[in-house]
Write a sequence for this structure.
């Protein structure tokens, strides 16, 4: 989550400069504001217009641009940020930074700033390995500058080795880690949410009434405590929260695949209402009323994602399942949920009564019972947001 974080992004002139456009897009998706600064050489690789359009901001280019000075002086610009990111940082730019030169807007800002600076180097392998670059790198590190990458691999110039720009998701993770605070900082949290859709044919499916509201609130609450959240969601009514990695799925099979791909994680919260069965004889073409009688659907059991994760060899330290029950008698919900905790092999179960009379399914409130090894804890009826906050707090305490 980078909500309202202000990033001053200095784009250096290397072949990797085009990737900085993707960085702008993804930073903004996470709620950050981005002010791009292009070096003269960068303009050979990306246009100021594309950087400006993606950032929805003015792009700064020239130290002696009087309009810029009138709007915002370079000192002010260098400080109106929470973090300065140089991506890509070319050998030349690193050299000028290390030498303390201020001969264009980018280097002047980097000299004038009182904010943390992060560089993402990208250059030919020989240039990276050159003693001058390694000397400059040591100097910059000594100055407190954070360095992300470079990666090793095939390069645009045809050579192989260290010097490739770090992958943009890794740059994002480094930026997020820089800002992360709260008890879940540095923790990876996996949340499933929403219903699944199990196809009958290409236009029909079997679904359930889960809105995804509780799972969405939980993901947001965990994000607010500093966690890096992977949010695997079925087709929910509620939009996913900002600042989390959203992985959209339709079916239980897809959800299982997405969950496995997202592991390892420190904690998994499986709030999705996964369909227990899928239609085994789903039709590849739309089924027609052809007068030959009613269709017969055959069902197959879906994978139990919660049980698979709980019993798997990449099990998170804490696994939380949900038990949505329609209790016939007082105590039924807790009895079933307690048995479910043992059967599924998860650590906690969040149980609730979703009988229509409770108004919980699709509503804004929830009344849950937390079942742990230590016992059974009924929580009061609260908004789903508040229920999520309490659960996130308990999770943070359990992982501490
Ligand atoms: O067995 P039941 O569906 O009641 O269990 C509910 C819990 O199990 C929820 O946490 C749900 O996300 C999870 N579940 C699952 N995969 C399934 C069915 C349920 O992960 N196929």
């Amino acid at each position: 989550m980078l909500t309202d974080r202000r990033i001053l992004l200095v784009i250096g002139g290397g072949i990797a400069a085009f990737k900085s456009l993707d960085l702008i897009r993804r930073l903004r998706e996470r709620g950050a504001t981005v002010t791009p600064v292009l070096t003269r050489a960068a303009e050979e690789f990306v246009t100021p217009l594309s950087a400006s359009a993606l950032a929805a901001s003015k792009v700064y280019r020239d130290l002696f641009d009087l309009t810029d000075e009138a709007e915002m002086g370079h000192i002010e610009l260098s400080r109106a940020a929470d973090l300065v990111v140089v991506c890509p940082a070319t050998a030349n730019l690193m050299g000028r930074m290390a030498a303390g030169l201020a001969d264009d807007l980018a280097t002047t800002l980097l000299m004038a700033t009182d904010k943390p600076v992060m560089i993402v180097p990208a250059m030919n392998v020989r240039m990276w390995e050159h003693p001058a670059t390694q000397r400059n790198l040591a100097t910059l590190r000594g100055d407190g500058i954070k360095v992300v990458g470079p990666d090793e691999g095939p390069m645009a110039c045809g050579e192989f080795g260290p010097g490739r720009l770090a992958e943009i998701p890794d740059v994002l993770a480094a930026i997020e880690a820089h800002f992360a605070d709260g008890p879940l900082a540095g923790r990876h949290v996996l949340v499933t949410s929403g219903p699944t859709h199990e196809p009958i044919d290409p236009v029909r499916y079997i679904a359930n009434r889960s809105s995804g509201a509780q799972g969405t609130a939980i993901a947001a609450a965990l994000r607010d405590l500093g966690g890096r959240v992977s949010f695997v969601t079925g087709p929910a009514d509620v939009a996913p929260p900002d600042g989390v990695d959203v992985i959209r799925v339709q079916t239980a099979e897809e959800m299982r695949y997405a969950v496995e791909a997202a592991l390892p994680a420190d904690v998994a919260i499986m709030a999705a209402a996964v369909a227990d069965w899928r239609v085994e004889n789903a039709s590849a073409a739309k089924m027609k009323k052809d007068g030959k009688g009613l269709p017969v659907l055959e069902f197959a059991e879906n994978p139990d994602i919660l049980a698979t994760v709980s019993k798997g060899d990449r099990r998170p330290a804490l696994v939380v399942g949900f038990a949505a029950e329609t209790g016939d008698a007082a105590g039924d919900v807790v009895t079933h949920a307690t048995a479910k905790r043992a059967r599924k092999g998860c650590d906690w179960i969040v149980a609730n009564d979703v009988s229509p009379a409770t108004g919980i399914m699709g509503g804004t409130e929830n009344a849950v019972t937390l079942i742990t090894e230590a016992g059974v804890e009924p929580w009061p009826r609260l908004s789903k947001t508040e229920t999520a906050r309490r659960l996130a707090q308990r999770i943070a305490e359990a992982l501490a």
Summary: The two ends are 21 Å apart (CA to CA). The longest strand covers residues 318-325. The domain at 1-179 is CATH 3.40.50.1950 (Rossmann fold).
